[in-house]
Amino acid sequence: MLEKIFLEAENEAAELLIEYPETVNIEFDCSVDDKVTVATRLLYGENEKYDKITNIRNIEKAKIYYLNHFVRTNEIYDKEMNFNSDGYNAQKRRIMEQILVVKKVEYLNNIIEEYQDSNETNNNEKIDWLGQPSQLAYLILQLIEKKYIESPGNRQQDRKSQRKIARLIYDCFSIKDLKGEKETTFDNFYKEFYSNSLTSAAQERFRIKENI
């Protein structure tokens, strides 16, 4: 009977888990927070439901607990050994809910790990810029001026928008300093956006026709 009730509980939990990813996606869509924050919040809620006394994660000890519980409470079989289907279903549901909590926690932990790994990869990987910082900055300014890139503001008047663009580019590219020995600082790269050091002759090589 013990193996039967656990098997049925596991099967029911597996069926309910099929719909859980869609539920999580709805939570993602309805929240203004990032996915890791949402998943962490859901994870906290599921952990609150976990019964540490029965401790279903340790399945063998959990079975011993429930066996002793069944004998002690007579919820499934009374003292005359009459089967109580309502008691059986109630206990099966209790076990199923704990198994489902464990499965949901595993699913949410996987989501969090995947996004954290993805963010770590994205933060560490950059495109190597083989030219000078001034060349990249001037090239970006040309693309904005010739309307190939939409600027978040007027590059001639809005220093804040220039800084924002410079930060986006700096975070995407590995840009060496003039000696080519180490990565240039953001402040040095940003200066090239409002006071570009390329000579007029060098700028001519980067001239771009306007996007019509």
Principal-axes shape call: rod-shaped
Main sheet? 2 strands, parallel
Number of strands: 2
Oligomer: single chain
Radius of gyration: 30 Å
Mean pLDDT: 86
Q: Quote the beta fraction.
A: under 5%
Q: Give the helix proportion (percent range).
A: 55-70%
What's the end-to-end separation, in Å?
A: 77 Å
Number of helices: 9
Number of domains: 2
Q: Which strand order spans the largest sheet, edge to edge or round the barrel?
A: 1-2
Give the low-pLDDT segments.
Answer: none
Please identify the structural class as seen in this structure. Answer: mainly alpha
Helices and strands, in N-to-C order? HHHHHEHHEHH
Overview of this protein structure:
It contains 9 helices and 2 strands. By secondary structure, the chain is mainly α. It folds into 2 domains: 123 residues; 78 residues, no CATH class. It has a two-stranded parallel sheet.
Keywords:
single chain; 212 residues; mainly alpha; 2 domains; two-stranded parallel sheet; 3% strand; rod-shaped
Describe the SSE topology.
Layout: H1 2-17, H2 20-30, H3 35-49, H4 59-73, H5 85-124, E1 127-129, H6 133-145, H7 159-172, E2 173-175, H8 186-194, H9 200-204
Parallel strand pairs: 1-2
